[in-house]
Amino acid sequence: MKTCLQALIIITASFSLIQTTFAEGDANAGKDKAAACAGCHGTDGNSYPGMGKFPKLAGLGEKYLNKQISDIKSGQRSVVAMTGMLDALSAQDIADIAAHYNDQTRTLDGSEDNAKTLERGENLYRAGNLETSVPACTGCHSPSGSGNSPAGYPALGGQSAEYIASQLRAFRTAAHDSEDPTGRSNDEGRVMRGVAAHMSEQEIVAVANYIAGLHQ
Fold it and tell me: Is the pLDDT of residue 23 over 80?
């Protein structure tokens, strides 16, 4: 227990040392600016049935959304499907789009009805894995999955299980090989790389499935 708590404290402290400032967004202005995003992410930011590889942006958190869009534009986060799509956006455009999507209501797809997988996912989300020093997800993303928007921790509840799993794998890849182009390394303070590095494939699948059905 002590080891897991220490890991969570270190992760939280590392994140709190980093301050990122973004422009203030206008959700109304962002609605029109986000029109090009609807093809993959839906007009309301909830993506489309059967397209779980595209994340739901609705209610994800304004600060988090702003950072991700900015990072994709700058190349700090690689998303091949979005190559060149953000080049013409200003910092204000990005802030407005982030505000617009954050104002939308997340729909719930629900978890796969597998009792064993759900139990494993819930245990990991709420208690972590003491043996491998994986901290509980609740410390940053809240017990209900609503996240912590001011701190930049995204709301995960109801997100596509396919997308959650893909991002955990990407963080894990980057943690083990920083040069691997399939990895993701734009997490502040290496927070998610530190978590995902110790997760097994079974744990990733289980917690992603649990998160898909998590709601307030």
Answer: no
pLDDT surpassing 80 at residue 8: no
Same-domain pairing of 97 and 140: no
Q: What is the pTM of this model?
A: 0.89
Residue 22, in any domain of the structure: no
- Where in 69-170 does DSSP place strands (E)? none
Q: 125 and 183: one domain? A: yes
The 3-class secondary structure across 23-50, one letter per residue, is CCCCHHHHHHHCHHHHHHHCCCCCCCCC
Gap between the Cα atoms of 89 and 63, Å rounded: 17
Residue 11 · residue 3 · CB < 8 Å? no
Which of 54, 72, 102 delimits the end of a domain?
Answer: 102
- Closest C-alpha among 15, 19, 93, 100 to residue 59: 100
- In the chain, % helix, strand, coil (3-state, to 5) comes to 55, 0, 45
95 falls within a domain? yes
Q: Under DSSP, is residue 154 helix (H, G, I), strand (E, B) or coil?
A: coil
Domain interval for residue 179: 2-16+109-212
